[in-house]
Design brief:
Elements (H helix, E strand, L loop, with lengths): L2 H25 L8 E7 L15 H8 L1 E4 L2 E2 L6 H10 L3 H4 L6 E5 L4 E5 L4 H4 L5 H7 L4 E4 L12 E3 L8 H8 L5 H4 L7 H18 L4 E6 L1 H9 L4 H24 L5 E6 L5 E8 H7 L6 E6 L2 E6 L4 H13 L4 E5 L21 E5 L2 E5 L9 E10 L13 E5 L6 E3 L2 E2 L3 H8 L18
Parallel strand pairs: 1-8, 1-9, 2-18, 3-19, 6-7, 6-8, 10-15
Antiparallel strand pairs: 2-17, 4-5, 9-17, 10-16, 11-12, 12-14, 13-14
Helix pairs in contact: 3-14, 9-11, 10-11
C-alpha cells in the first residue's frame, strides 16, 4: 500500500473516531441534578379538542411533532381539579391520596354541616408520597406555580401560589427586581382569570430563568373558567386555547434563555374534559320538594353531586334520598357505598370526606345547589354552560397528555392511558421511583 493511501485511511479512521466520540457525547445521559421536568397543566382541556386539525395551538403541535402524545388520558373519579392534579403527582387515585374536593371537606355532626376548605395545608390533605417530595428528599429542587393541594408544602423549594401574598419569598424577590408589582397580585378590581394566568406565566418564566428547578409544577385556569361560563366548543373556548398556547411558548423560550432547553422535558396535561350543559338539576330544591330537610346536605360538582346524611336516621334517609333522585329528571344514576370501590372512590369508613351517596347527571344536565326564588327544580339554563364531574369513563371527560424534550421519543402517538402514569413518568425522568405508583409510560421514554 502506498504511503499516500495509508495516510488517507488513517485520516478517515481518525474522523470516524471523532464522529463516534461526538455521538457518544451527545447520547450521554444528563445527571438528574442537571435535568428539568416542567409539568404544565391546562385545566379543563378536553382530549376531543386535539382531534381538530385547525385548533389554534402551534406551540402544542410543535411539541407533539417532536415528542409523544396520547389520543386521550383518563382521569380518576371524581373528575374534578384537585383530585386529578394530586393523582398526577402521586400516581395513585383518591382511595390512597385522599383528595376528593378542591380543598379539604370539613364535616361536623349534630347538626350536620359540610364545607370545603381550600386553605388546608398539603400535609393535612395528601396522604400519599408525591414526586416533588421524593425529588426534594433526593437533593433536587422543586417549584410550583398555582398548583393545587399543595398549600405550605415543605418539600417545595419555590412557590408562587394561587393566592400569592406580598410576604411570599418569591413574590418579594420578583418585586425587588422590578418584575412584578404588588398591584399585579392584588384582587382589587376583580382581575380576570386571563390576567392571573399571565401573572402565573411571568412567575413560571422567572423561576426557570433564575432558579432552574429540577421539577416545576405549573397550572393555568383560563380554559376551565371559559368552559364553565360559555361551554366547550365555542369561540370563547378556542380563544382561551390560543392564549394558553402562547403561555406554553413563553415557558419554552425561558428554558432557551436559561440555557437548559436541551435537558428539559415538557409534559403538557389536563385534569379532565368538559360537557355542554343546557339544564340544571337544583339538588337542594329536589330534596325540599320531597320534604327532606337539613339532615341531608349536598355539595354539587357539575356532572355529579355528593350527598351527606345525618347519622341519626342514616339508613332511612339514604333510601329516601336515593328513591327521590332516581325519579328525578336528568339523573343518570345514584351510586351507593357498595359501588364506591369499583369507581375508585374511598369508603366513608376510611375517608371521612366521602359522602353517603353520589348522584350522577345525564349528558346535557348539570347538578347545582339551591335555586333561589320560584321555579322548577330542574330547569333550562339561560344559555349553555360547561361542566365536568361526570364519570371518568365518559368520552368527553378524557384529558390530554403530550410529552416532548429530553428523554422523550419523537413522533410517537400513544394509546389512551391513565393519569396515574404521569407521576411515575416524572419520577423516571428524574431518576426517582415512587413507592406505590404504576409503571412509567415506557412507550414515550428513550431507553
Amino acid at each position: 500500500m502506498s504511503r499516500s493511501k495509508s495516510s488517507a485511511l488513517l485520516l478517515v479512521f481518525a474522523y470516524l473516531l471523532i464522529f463516534q466520540a461526538r455521538a457518544s457525547w451527545a447520547a450521554a445521559p444528563v445527571a438528574a441534578k442537571d435535568r428539568t421536568v416542567i409539568l404544565i397543566s391546562l385545566d379543563g382541556f378536553p382530549a376531543y379538542d386535539l382531534e381538530d386539525p385547525k385548533l389554534p395551538i402551534p406551540t402544542l403541535r410543535e411539541l407533539m411533532r417532536n415528542g409523544s402524545w396520547a389520543k386521550s388520558m383518563q382521569p380518576i373519579n371524581p373528575t374534578w381539579t384537585w383530585p386529578n392534579h394530586t393523582t398526577m403527582v402521586t400516581g395513585v387515585d383518591a382511595r390512597k391520596h385522599g383528595v376528593l374536593y378542591n380543598g379539604l371537606l370539613r364535616r361536623q355532626d349534630d347538626p350536620l354541616t359540610v364545607k370545603v376548605d381550600p386553605t388546608a395545608p398539603k400535609v393535612e390533605m395528601v396522604h400519599a408520597p408525591t414526586v416533588y417530595d421524593l425529588a426534594q428528599q433526593s437533593g433536587l429542587t422543586t417549584a410550583q406555580v398555582d398548583w393545587v393541594a399543595i398549600n405550605d408544602a415543605p418539600t417545595i423549594s419555590w412557590a408562587f401560589p394561587e393566592k400569592a401574598t406580598p410576604s411570599a419569598p418569591l413574590v418579594k424577590e420578583m418585586v425587588g427586581k422590578g418584575l412584578l408589582t404588588l398591584e399585579d397580585i392584588s384582587n382589587d378590581g376583580h382581575p380576570s382569570i386571563v390576567w392571573r394566568d399571565q401573572i402565573w406565566t411571568r412567575a413560571g418564566s422567572y423561576l426557570i430563568k433564575e432558579h432552574k428547578p429540577n421539577l416545576l409544577l405549573f397550572h393555568l385556569l383560563t380554559l376551565d373558567s371559559t368552559h364553565h361560563t360559555y361551554a366547550p366548543k365555542t369561540l370563547a373556548s378556542y380563544d382561551a386555547i390560543a392564549f394558553l398556547d402562547s403561555c406554553i411558548r413563553e415557558l419554552i423560550e425561558a428554558t432557551k434563555t436559561a440555557g437548559i432547553f436541551d435537558r428539559t422535558t415538557f409534559l403538557v396535561v389536563s385534569d379532565h374534559g368538559f360537557r355542554r350543559v343546557e339544564k340544571q338539576i337544583w339538588l337542594r330544591n329536589v330534596l325540599n320538594g320531597a320534604h327532606i330537610g337539613p339532615e341531608v346536605q349536598v355539595i354539587p360538582e357539575g356532572g355529579s353531586g355528593m350527598i351527606y346524611v345525618s347519622s341519626g336516621r342514616r339508613k332511612e334517609l339514604i333510601e329516601k334520598v336515593a328513591a327521590t333522585l332516581a325519579e328525578t329528571e336528568g339523573v343518570a344514576r345514584v351510586v351507593k357505598e357498595s359501588d364506591f370501590s369499583a369507581l375508585g372512590y374511598p369508603l366513608p369508613s376510611s375517608n371521612r370526606q366521602m359522602p353517603d351517596l353520589v348522584v350522577l347527571a345525564k349528558p346535557g344536565y348539570g347538578i347545582a345547589g339551591e335555586r333561589k326564588g320560584a321555579g322548577p327544580a330542574v330547569a333550562a339554563t339561560e344559555s349553555p354552560v360547561g361542566a365536568h364531574g361526570y364519570l371518568n369513563t365518559d368520552p368527553e371527560m378524557q384529558a390530554i397528555f403530550v410529552a416532548s424534550g429530553y428523554g422523550i421519543k419523537k413522533g410517537q402517538r400513544l394509546e389512551p392511558l391513565r393519569n396515574t402514569k404521569v407521576a411515575p413518568t416524572i419520577a423516571d425522568l428524574l431518576g426517582l421511583k415512587l413507592p406505590d405508583g404504576e409503571s412509567p409510560i415506557s412507550e414515550a421514554l428513550q431507553q
